[in-house]
Amino acid sequence: MEYRQANRNDVAAFVENRLEFSALFVADAEMDAFRNRTKRYLEEHIDRDDLMVFLAVDDGRIVSSCMACLFLTAPLPSCPTGKSATLLNVYTLEAYRRQGHAETIVRMLIERLREADVDRVLLDYTDLGLPLYRKLGFVEREKQMHLRLR
């Protein structure tokens, strides 16, 4: 098993990996547009400091992945530098689950975020992922809301 940060050469395979994960939440009719938007985003950001993608690769196939989008806000008491990240799409193929692959790559990602002076990591979670996130030190937040604009 190879654990590493993704690069430009991984974009096509990671897009398909992300679509497999997203198919759990997105209607089939939307998948082509989602694939194209994802591919464009990754091609634009994969070599920049505002996106980090980590992979577990077995025999050339992505079996587990995670990504974080970094952003900057005004400094806050809970985020003194204003540097935050959103953890997205932690996904492991079913045959590779419960073997520590997601934990390994999320830990690698968290370390890189620390090196980038990110103060906090936000995420939306599923019931399946909640035990892992708790194990890694994430805590649920109260009094947070969101508004969908589209």
Radius of gyration computed on alpha carbons: 15 Å
How far do the termini sit from each other? 40 Å
Mean pLDDT: 93
* Main beta-sheet annotation: 5 strands, mixed
- Order of secondary-structure elements: EHHEEEHEH
Which structural class fits the helix and strand makeup? alpha+beta
List segments where confidence is low: pLDDT < 50 over at least 5 consecutive residues: none
Read across the widest sheet, the strand sequence of neighbours is 1-2-3-4-5
Gross geometry = globular
- Strand residue content: 25-35%
Folded structure, characterized:
This protein is an alpha+beta fold and 150 residues long. Helices cover 32% and strands 25% of the residues. The protein contains 4 helices and 5 strands; from the N terminus they run E-H-H-E-E-E-H-E-H. It has helices at 11-22, 31-45, 101-115, 130-135; strands spanning 2-5, 51-58, 61-72, 83-92, 120-123. It has a 5-stranded mixed sheet, sandwiched between helices. Strand 2 (51-58) and strand 3 (61-72) form a beta hairpin. It is globular. The model has no long low-confidence stretch (mean pLDDT 93).
